[in-house]
Specification:
The strands form two sheets. The protein has a six-stranded parallel beta sheet with strand order 1-8-5-4-2-3, with helices on both faces. Strand 2, helix 2 and strand 3 form a beta-alpha-beta unit. It contains eleven helices and eight strands. The chain folds into two domains: 144 residues, Rossmann fold (3-Layer(aba) Sandwich), CATH 3.40.50.1970; 120 residues, Dehydroquinate synthase-like, alpha domain (Up-down Bundle), CATH 1.20.1090. It is α/β, with parallel strands linked by helices.
Length: 281
Amino acid sequence: MDFNRVKLPREIHSGPGVINETGSICRDLKLKGRVLVASGPRTMKIAGEKVIESLQDHDFGVETIIIKKASMDAVHEVQDHMGNMNAVLGVGGGKVIDVAKMAATQLEVHSVSIPTAASHDGISSPRASIKDQGGSVSLEAEPPMGVIADTQIISQAPFRLLAAGCGDIISNYTAVLDWKLAHRLLNEDYSDSASALSLVTAEMLIKSAGDIKEGLIESAAIVVKALISSGMAISIAGNSRPASGAEHKFSHALDIMAPEPALHGEQCGVGTIMMMYLHGG
């Protein structure tokens, strides 16, 4: 008999100022001792320092590392810094969070996702996009144990990042169409519940499109909720099918071919238009 195991974040916290509760949240997650805070050069100043202060206020020992790119070298660097620490907190954009997730997965320790922008659904998903010599590859990873999304900080990120997050969510439409096609032609496993969640997430985002504006906490909250929901659809399916189809392959091709690739979500959004045309939509 086949069994399906769904892995999801244990706790999700979002709202303005919630980053200041990081230490308390990590205590609630039963984390203790020493932890590693992984962040980017800019996001360490924007959010990482707040995370460190909150952790230290709750008696955590804290080490830090700066992540500059989402590569296996960066994953190995995080692993080398871990020592006997039992958790890594990824504070930053998608690259930082993906590296933290992958490193934690390989070391069999916990990770916590603390996004500073809502640019793609890796915030909560069990996947990590890591670059190698042939471009980006999507690898299976353990989902973060917790997600702490401070909508005040996210709302202050460049609006282009929020728009990219919307593009990543809208691509769910063609991803599900591709999944249905693979199920029909190749007898690939298909999950009605995962596809339904994926599509509802995209539909809700489109209905709220008029409310998504630059600098608004409410706008950041809408997109964050959608990205987390999309990540959960991936967890339910046990693969990336609900949120990644040919439009993502198009994006990965651009990563390899384009002299200066655009943001992941921007490329997926353009790819969605192309693939929807091929589906007759």
